[in-house]
Amino acid sequence: MNLSRRSYYYQHKDPSSDDALEARISDICLEFSGYGYRRVTKQLQREGWIINHKKVARIMREKGWSRRSRKRKWVTTTDSDHGFQVYPNLVKDLEITAINQLWVADITYIRILTCFVYLAVILDVFSRMAVGHAISRQINMDLALDALRMAISKRQPHPGCIHHSDRGIQYASSDYVKELIENGFRISMSRKGNPYDNAYAESFIKTLKSEEVCLWEYRTMADVQKRTPFFIEDVYNRKRLHSSLGYRPPCEFEEMIMLTQSPCQDTLIALP
Questions:
Q1: How much is the pTM?
Q2: For 71-112, how does the pLDDT look when each residue is reduced to its tens digit (9 = 90+)?
Q3: In this structure, what is the dihedral angle of CA atoms 246, 163, 263, 150, given to the nearest 10 degrees?
Q4: Which string of DSSP letters, residue by residue, matches the chain?
């Protein structure tokens, strides 16, 4: 019939389906402002849409929904000029294969109308789960210790878990180190002046700032105490797709790993 293959297989497109697709992409971009076209595509595919990333990228570009980065002021939260013991870096070239193998800790600031407030967070590197967090007007040892105690209470890690942080006084203080030792942690700290040693925590903070803090006009401490834990627990841990986890949220990833665990295994869970 002298028809090209493309003409033979052509199917008329329903305009309403494209409208529905654009509406769903818009909703995803509004809910997850930090998503690029790859994560948007993965979310659509998880929902049953048959679509590739090229079409999603084109729609986002045409509609002006592409992710934009923002430049921010840098506020120092690390005071490493102290007389406490500094521990060696145990995570350089470490292969992460299990839950509760490596935790990373860090502190960041959140601006409100009259001052800064501070957030301490602890992540499980294997699953990217935020396992502990605390908020305070003071950047001190108690802030870091509250986040640590929350993480220990939730996870109950067995001895041998590595706790990695910067060299800040909050993490090197006697009370904090005592808590780590009593709970069987191996203590690890970044090299001086090298933020890449704590890249997992830095990545979390970047996500928190770009997808939550910068989008809300926090005015009071109460605003921070309401919004930030919601983002960490309900959005970051339960909904946000992580490319390093096969585009799954941390909770879903951990549940998948738990299904491979036999009853005799402990809380150090490795991939099969």
A1: 0.75
A2: 555 455 555 565 689 999 999 889 999 999 999 999 999 999
A3: -90
A4: ----HHHHT-----HHHHHHHHHHHHHHHHH-TT--HHHHHHHHHHTT----HHHHHHHHHHHT-----------------SSS--PPP--TTPPP-EETSEEEEEEEEEE-SSSEEEEEEEEETTTTEEEEEEEESS-SHHHHHHHHHHHHHHH-PPTT-EEEE-S-HHHHSHHHHHHHHHTTPEEEEPPTT-GGGGHHHHHHHHHHHHHTGGGS---SHHHHHHHHHHIIIIIITTT--BGGGTSB-HHHHHHHHHTT--TT--S-EE--
